[in-house]
Design a protein that fits this description.
311 residues; 27% helix; alpha/beta; Rossmann fold; 7-stranded mixed sheet; 8 helices; Methionyl-tRNA Fmet Formyltransferase, Chain A, domain 2; 2 domains; single chain; elongated; 27% strand
């Protein structure tokens, strides 16, 4: 079978998913519908905000479904009427079995890690926070437990020691799109060999990627410069690692490691008031390059020091 003959329902919401949908559309795939989150009120005027996927679908004249509940009778009946051969999920909600088990060829998910490592909601962030040198993308078949389905294809991606989660995200969304298209092509040709996750790398300790909460972002300066640096870049640009300066929340987005053998007072500040501003960890300083003080916009350190006197 040619991959262009497959009837595909695509499910996704954020910008990360747009690259994958765009790759399928550009390759001539038959997208019979796009499922995305309902519009949500946002901003001071509470105007309805459309998801990135909806905006793309509207611009490309694709059929759009925005169910509030994925188990609703109307949505299930509409989904059945589409007679999809395969469903694709990229950065979407958890699906009930009646949905993911519907297509004859199953439902394929694109996940931002090399499964079985970093199962969960924030795989890119946690890989960076943990100082990984590489991560990757996995396509796999959905099943009951989250991120545990049979692996289809994988592709590795190097992480530079100064790259932020946002920068890894931008590279990964393109790599994920390429891998998804390759997966769909091989699925249509009957070339995919599914691999059970519980039979892979049984000797490795699995690392997880749970949802991030505000407490994950608080910086502990008693840790090493490497650990603090990785936390900062792993939470940049969102939700942001933070500390406090003069009783105001200070978010830090980009840093440089500065290891030192001198005895340090953890959390103490050094600054010339013009070009550098650094805070002491247990084995050196974190030199801050970009930050945002409560009530102010995000800015580079030179601009910040120009308007703020550091005590």
């Amino acid at each position: 079978m040619n991959y262009k003959d497959l009837r595909i329902v695509f499910m996704g919401t954020p910008v990360f998913a747009v690259a994958s949908l765009n790759a399928l559309v550009n390759a001539g795939c038959n997208i019979v519908a796009v499922v995305t989150a309902p519009d949500k009120p946002a901003g001071r005027g509470l105007q309805l905000n459309e998801s990135a996927i909806k905006k793309y679908a509207v611009a490309n004249n694709l059929k759009i479904l925005q169910p509030v509940k994925l188990k609703s009778v109307d949505f299930i009946e509409t989904l059945k009427s589409l007679k999809a051969d395969v469903q694709i999920v990229v950065a979407f909600r958890m699906l009930p079995e009646m949905v993911w088990n519907m297509p004859t060829m199953g439902t394929i998910n694109v996940h931002g890690s090399l499964l079985p490592q970093y199962r969960g909601a924030a795989p890119i962030n946690w890989a960076v926070i943990n100082g990984e040198k590489f991560t990757g993308v996995t396509t796999f078949k959905l099943k009951h437990a989250i991120d545990t389905g049979n692996i289809l294809l994988q592709e590795s991606l190097a992480i530079d020691e100064n790259e932020t989660a946002g920068e890894v995200h931008d590279k990964m969304k393109e790599l994920g799109a390429e891998l998804l298209l390759k997966t769909i092509q091989q699925l249509a040709e009957g070339k995919l060999i599914e691999k059970e996750q519980n039979k892979l790398n049984n000797t490795l300790t699995l690392k997880h990627a749970p949802k991030l909460y505000s407490e994950n972002g608080k910086i502990d300066f008693s840790k090493t410069v490497e650990e603090v640096h990785n936390l900062v870049r792993g939470l940049s640009p969102f939700p942001g690692a933070y500390t406090f300066l003069n009783n105001k929340l200070l978010k830090i987005y980009r840093t440089i490691k500065e290891v030192s053998d001198e005895p340090l007072e953890v959390g103490s500040i050094k600054s010339d008031g013009k070009k550098y501003f650094k805070m002491a960890c247990c084995n050196g300083y974190i030199n801050i390059l970009e930050l945002q003080l409560e009530g102010k916009k995000r800015m580079k350190i030179e601009d910040f020091l120009r308007g703020n006197k550091i005590q």
